[in-house]
Amino acid sequence: MLRSKKETQERNMHRQAVLDQKNRSEDDFEKYITFISSGALAITVTFIDKLSPLDQSVFVWVILVGWFFLAATLFLNLISHYLSSRYNEKTIQEIDEDIPTNKLTENIDKRNNIISRLNISSIFLLGIGIFCILIFTGINAYYHG
Prior knowledge:
Number of domains: 1
Largest sheet: none
Order of helices and strands: HHH
Strand content: under 5%
Number of strands: 0
Structural class: mainly alpha
Radius of gyration: 22 Å
Shape: elongated
């Protein structure tokens, strides 16, 4: 189907707007994952300090597991951010080298899949970490409530 020049320009403008929104969304995702993980760590330290000191707490291993998963979330998010930056540089290099479009698209898809898996893993680890913290908090609130 042939498009007029105006239709092509409008389509390209719409495409660029979608890409811009996608980039903002990805930036927000990384910020929120970092904010939630670090916030959860800070809140649990405050909880332990003020309400349920470790020497009086039960099932301390649960909070340690939760902290481990939150720290792993932060670490994976950092790796994802780093790789994303490196992958963008690699894509720019491949564009500059004028590699064929199909190979470029294939390479970008492979890189995006890696980033997606890291992001999904971050979400999963964050959920487990928060769940462990909630279990620890609930149990210790019951015992020390």
